[in-house]
Amino acid sequence: MDKRRNTGLPFMKMHGLGNDFVVVDARAHEFGMTAPLAMAIADRHRGIGFDQLAVIETGAGDAHLTFWNADGSTAGACGNATRCIARYLMDETGKDTLLLSTARGDLRAQDAGGGQTSVNMGAPQLDWQEIPLAEEMDTLELPIEGSPVATGMGNPHCTFFVADADAIPLEQFGPRYEHHPLFPERTNVQVATITGPNRIRMRVWERGAGLTLASGSSSCAVAVAAARRGLTGRTVQIALDGGTLDVEWREDGVWMTGPTMHVASGTLTAQFLESVR
Fold it and tell me: What is the reported pTM?
């Protein structure tokens, strides 16, 4: 049994534009996160509540990050959580640039000034096998009603460009496509509307989390999809339910910039940890 079950588990609560996270710093004391424990912490009535949970571990760079969804599944990438943790580590170390390893690969983060934090989420995955899709097809126009765009950002994304993103009943729309047979690993679902030159209004249903106020990897996927469709340039501002992110698709990857917030630090009690079997 992990000794932390006898002493409690320190955690931090953070958010990026309302996309909220529980973060466990396991660098000093190794802690094995499990799906049942992640699901228990995710419970907003009996636990803490989060869209994603992130574990910080020692890595080849400045740290290694592992991400869990609220349903106990793991995620290869989480852009807003990466930005939040990057800000925490920058404040801790005094560095203004970091290298963070993830299942997605090595991600670079930097202080963008004015309280803003940037992270390079890497090159988008545009081939059907990389996303992945169930069979070979044009990822720019899927054979689904609405002709969405498929993009990989370390996790799968399905982007619908619509006349009015706010008019879509995303609570019903999102689950329908999250589990579409074309996406064997399920998918994040976005509805997006071009509202001006290089400006996008976007709402998101996240795989394993549901309706969220913001999503960093989804914002990157929407920016890439819009540029590929010729709807925008490669530098865009994306308005989400929780606020605004700036996204730039550069030669070295997709950079995302926005604010972060470290809300609180606390400890999950031994009683809570022992209740999870």
Answer: 0.91
